[in-house]
UniProtKB/TrEMBL annotation:
GO terms for molecular function: UTP:glucose-1-phosphate uridylyltransferase activity. Substrate binds at residue 211. This is UTP--glucose-1-phosphate uridylyltransferase. One of its GO terms (biological process) is glycogen biosynthetic process. CDD domains: UGPase_euk. Its EC number is 2.7.7.9. It is an enzyme of class 2 (transferase). InterPro entries: Nucleotide-diphossugar_trans, UDPGP_fam, UDPGP_trans. UTP binds at residues 118, 181, 210, 241, 383. It comes from Ogataea parapolymorpha (strain ATCC 26012 / BCRC 20466 / JCM 22074 / NRRL Y-7560 / DL-1).
Length: 494
């Protein structure tokens, strides 16, 4: 009997469908583990599969019990649990020596029609997300004579490309470290058995289990111990595509002064952010409430910008020793997000599950954890080409890798909605080869086969709708202010 099979005695399940599913999953995982010949590879793979199995068991238990939040127990956070950025004190930069920065770098650019890691998409002046992050931290290290390292948490999808890309930063005043998050098996939705049959099955059979995996991966990779040995105490975590997530010494100093183990940056919710998770007080404990956890009859309450006024930016400040303590105690049980996908198996499409967790959900496990409501400028994600147009425009100035809103702009950023013709970056670049001036723009909607010329200005509300089978060319030098352009407008350059 293998050591894996022996360990099954520790999992005492009642004779139910839940226990049968768990037993079948454990057996399938053990077969894959035992078939790996290289001892080092097998040891690492076994740790990953044990972590996955723990997650799978929790998923089954939650599903069986039907555990949901009691809406009546949800309260607004207390003044200690959510504080205003404006109440934070200015301080010196001495705490920078305690800081490390981590960018979540596991995503591909496929949703924007790009190949490879999303972090290498060009976003401004020929520079990628990763280029801008490196410039920001390098500037910080030079200006304050400090040594803030940059960590990249890759996935198996992005690791190989990222290893090649980071070589170009050798010689820069920045230490870049990379590590991989876990690789978990997708699960067939009907049988609840793993999709892969072996360790080296094709990549479609596996998935990176969300950024909640950060904690275990940081510890198991050895990177957390390296940071502690270097005297680092605080990790600033953010999405790789959030161009507003720069190091802020006011928040860093506030964390040191308060002794908080976890700080989540929140920002005011607009109607475009109604699905974003928010902090709540639940049974006297601060927690992150995501829309997936909300009972169906309360979804509209959750979306209310009056009831829940801010949302999670996923800019997080976390104490490194606290991470180590909680991971070693196996105390980080975050809510599971079942993500349904469809994959091709042979000649048929099969429904599969990915069991994921979110790093923000861990907040309830940390001492003194609270939120800070930050300016909207710290949340500047680029998820679509509509977002890309915003950050490429004259609305922002680039300063040492950070985007700063032009002082001539009145109010926040405009709302931009580009249609399906602009979904891919290549299409976007072809249709908008020269960025229009949008300093005075409030709202832009573009749908259909539309092309922009050079030197265009957009002001107020501009709506451009091209009819099916037609084409609209916005001529060079056009000034569009509070207009609706429809139909077919083909203008040739003279």
């Amino acid at each position: 009997m293998s050591k894996h099979a022996k360990s099954q005695s520790t999992y005492a399940f009642e004779n139910t469908s839940t226990s049968v599913a768990a037993s079948q999953m454990r057996n399938s995982l053990n077969k894959m583990i035992d078939a790996v010949e290289d001892p080092k590879v097998r040891a690492k793979f076994e740790v990953e599969m044990d972590s996955f199995f723990s997650l799978f068991r929790r998923y089954l238990a939650d599903k069986a019990s039907g555990t949901t939040l009691d809406w009546n127990q949800i309260r607004s956070p207390t003044p200690d649990e959510v504080v205003a950025y404006s109440s934070l004190q200015d301080g010196d930069n001495s705490n920078l020596s305690k800081l490390a920065v981590l960018k979540l770098n596991g995503g591909l650019g496929t949703s924007m029609g790009c190949v490879g890691p999303k972090s290498v998409i060009e976003v401004r002046d020929g520079q990628s997300f990763l280029d801008l992050s490196v410039r920001q931290i390098e500037h910080l290290n030079k200006t304050y004579d400090t040594d803030v390292p940059l960590l990249l948490m890759n996935s198996f999808n992005t690791n190989d490309d990222t290893q090649i890309i980071v070589r170009k930063y050798q010689g820069h005043r920045i230490r870049i470290r990379t590590f991989n998050q876990s690789r978990y098996p997708r699960v067939f939705k009907d049988s609840l058995l793993p999709v892969p049959q072996s360790f080296d099955d094709n990549l479609d059979a596996w998935y990176p289990p969300g950024h909640g995996d950060l904690f275990e991966s940081l510890v198991s990779s050895g990177e957390l111990d390296v940071l502690l040995e270097q005297g680092k105490e605080i990790l600033f975590v953010s999405n790789g595509d959030n161009l507003g997530a720069t190091v802020d010494t006011k928040i860093l100093n506030h964390m040191v002064e308060t002794g908080a183990e976890y700080i989540m940056e929140l920002t005011d919710k607009t109607r475009a952010d109604v699905k974003g998770g928010t902090l709540i007080n639940y049974n006297g404990q601060v927690r992150l409430l995501e829309i997936a956890q909300v009972p169906k009859d309360h979804v509209e309450d959750f979306k209310s910008i009056k009831k829940f006024t801010n949302f999670n930016t996923n800019n997080l400040w976390i104490n490194l020793r606290a991470i180590k303590r909680l991971v070693e105690a196996n105390a980080l049980e975050m809510e599971i997000i079942p993500n349904s996908k469809s994959i091709s198996v042979g000649n048929s499409e099969m429904q599969v599950l990915q069991l994921e967790t979110a790093v923000g959900a861990a907040i309830r496990h940390f001492k003194g954890a609270h939120g800070v409501v930050v300016p909207r400028s710290r949340f500047l994600p680029v998820k679509t080409c509509s977002d890309l147009m915003l950050v490429k425009s004259d609305l922002f100035n680039l300063q040492h890798g950070a985007l700063k809103l032009d002082s001539a702009r009145f109010g926040g950023a405009p709302l931009i909605k580009l249609g399906s013709h602009f979904k891919k970056v290549s299409n976007f670049q072809q249709r908008i080869p020269h960025m229009p001036r949008i300093l005075e723009l409030d709202h832009l909607t573009v749908t259909g086969n539309v092309y922009f010329g050079r030197g265009i200005q957009l002001k107020g509300t501009v709506i451009i709708v091209c009819s099916d089978g037609q084409r609209i060319d916005i001529p060079n030098g056009s000034i569009l202010e509070n207009v609706v352009v429809t139909g077919n407008l083909t203008i040739l350059e003279h």
